Structure formats: C-alpha cells, structure tokens
Amino acid sequence: MLKRRSFIALALALAGCATPPVSTVPLASWEALQVQAGEQPLGIDKQASKLRAYIFRAGAAARLGHNHVLSATDFDARAFLGETGLSSARLQMDLQLDKLLVDDPTLRAELGGAFAKPLDADAIQGTRANMLGERGLQATVYPLLRLRSVKLVGEAPRLAALVEIELHGQRRQQWLVLRVNEQERRLTVSGSLVLRQTDFGLQPFSLLGGLLAVSDEIVVEFEIALVKPNAAAAATG
C-alpha cells in the first residue's frame, strides 16, 4: 500500500508539468436556434433529462488509476419539430462545463464494475480541477460543450443524426444514432457518441511517459425529455 501511495503522490506532483496548455482562439458566438415558420417548439423537462461522460484509465499502470464518470442534468436544450416531423426537426444542446458533477458516489455505485469503488473528496476535487483547469478543458476560456443537429435521416424509433460539436474552441461533425420514444405529448431522445480529446486540441492526461494515463476516447451518453407545447407547463425547463 505504501508503494502504491508513493507512486500516486509522485504522479500528482508531476501533474503540474505534464503537458503545456493548448493556446487557441475562442470561436465566434454560437447563435441559439430560433423558431422558424411552420415549426413547433418543444420544451425540455430537465428533471427527466441527463448527460453522462465516461473517462477511462490507460497506460501500463492503469490499475493504479481510476475510471471517472461525469454527469449533468442542468443543461439547456432547444428543439423544434418541422412540418414533416422528426426528419425536419432541429436540436441544440448547451452544457456549461463547470456544472458537471464529477464521480458522484451514488452514480458510481449504480454503474458498478470498475466504477463501483467510491473516491474520497480530495481525489474528486483534484480530478475536477485537472479536468476543468488550464491543462485540461480550460473551462474559464471555453465554458461550454455544444451540440446541434445538422441532418437527420430515418424514422422513429431510430434516426441517424449528423451533429456538430463544439468543445475547447474547436468544432467537429460526426454521425451518431438517436433512439426516439414518442408519446402523445412527449418525446424522449437518447443517444451516445465517442469524443476523441485530440480531435479538439486536447492532450489526454499522461504521466511518466504514458505509464499512467487516461484514454483519448470519452464515451458520452445523453437523454433529453422533450415536451410538446400543450404539456410544456409540466416541464421544469
């Protein structure tokens, strides 16, 4: 145990000089979607909506590290149904990075497996500071993760979506699969995608020549509960 603690202490001591921060210029503002003629605006039920991101340990000494789960329910979403229904729908989601909850103990226990072990408060605070700080997401400069639909193909309950993602001052497009549960006054849209940190100019955390690291790939899952106008009063958003 002493050897393991010594290794982790060394890793934390080196973290401050592991990787120089990335310098990029903030993008022009991302304009919020506005309703267009023939569209039906949808409300968002924030209590029934959620986002989770999974970060995985890597490197030869991965067993000494931890997997991490980030979660959020307090994010903004705008959605509009077109005259032809889901195929012409438009969706935008904005998440303020400093509202991310890091390694919630209840959520870790629910996930089980390699996430089951709870982390102490100091470890969680250290992880949060590294992720959002100057050598990570630089959340004070780039405070938002944004996603918006570019093209939708298919029919409920499955659609293919081309989405544009903005993170850390850069934008990328990729395809993902959406699952749609449509009820009389409610739409639940869920999906998952893989973000590669290096695609957005981020350098995955790495120490001792990669002996202790995190994977470049981050798995993101989301579920957005949308409410049609007549039921919008029931939504919390």
Structure report:
- This protein has 237 residues and is mainly β.
- The chain has one domain (33-234): Lipid/polyisoprenoid-binding, YceI-like (Lipocalin, Beta Barrel).
- The chain has helices at residues 2-15, 105-111, 121-132, and strands at 40-44, 50-58, 68-72, 76-82, 85-96, 101-102, 144-155, 158-167, 170-182, 186-196, 206-207, 212-227.
- Strands 1-4-5-7-8-9-10-12 form an eight-stranded antiparallel beta barrel.
- It starts with a helix and ends in a 10-residue tail after the last strand.
Described by strand count, sense and barrel closure, the largest sheet is: 8 strands, antiparallel, barrel
Order of helices and strands: HEEEEEEHHEEEEEE
Radius of gyration over alpha carbons? 20 Å
Q: Mean pLDDT across all residues, rounded?
A: 83
Spatial ordering of strands, largest sheet = 1-4-5-7-8-9-10-12
Structural class, by secondary structure, is mainly beta
Instruction: Let me know the CATH homologous superfamily.
Output: Lipid/polyisoprenoid-binding, YceI-like
Instruction: Give the domain tally.
Output: 1
List keywords for this structure.
disordered N terminus, eight-stranded antiparallel β-barrel, elongated, disordered C terminus, mainly beta, 237 residues, 3 helices, single chain, Lipocalin
